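User: Sequence recovery, please. Input:
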């Protein structure tokens, strides 16, 4: 299961969302660094009508997928209305 991060952790890892890598229909992607020093991308999801439990179920499903052609989900954030994937 992926690691749950608080929104304050996400802000620290992205250095207050300093390095924006791109933006799509579902949100913006930022460069971030984990405590281990590993560089990752964090996708901050836009406003969603889905409730928190739906997001957690989605994270659990995506977190079980391991394939060479699919980016691995390392973590997530669900903090009030803030949602993110690491």
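Assistant: Recovered sequence (86 residues):
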């Amino acid at each position: 299961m992926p690691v749950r991060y608080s929104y304050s952790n996400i802000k620290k890892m992205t250095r207050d969302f300093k390095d924006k890598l791109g933006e799509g229909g579902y949100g913006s992607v930022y460069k971030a660094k984990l405590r281990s020093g590993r560089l990752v991308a964090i996708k901050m999801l836009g406003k969603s009508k889905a409730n928190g439990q739906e997001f957690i179920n989605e994270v659990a499903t995506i977190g079980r997928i391991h394939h060479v052609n699919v980016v691995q989900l390392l973590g997530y954030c669900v903090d009030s209305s803030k949602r993110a994937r690491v």
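The helical segments are 7-13, 52-63.
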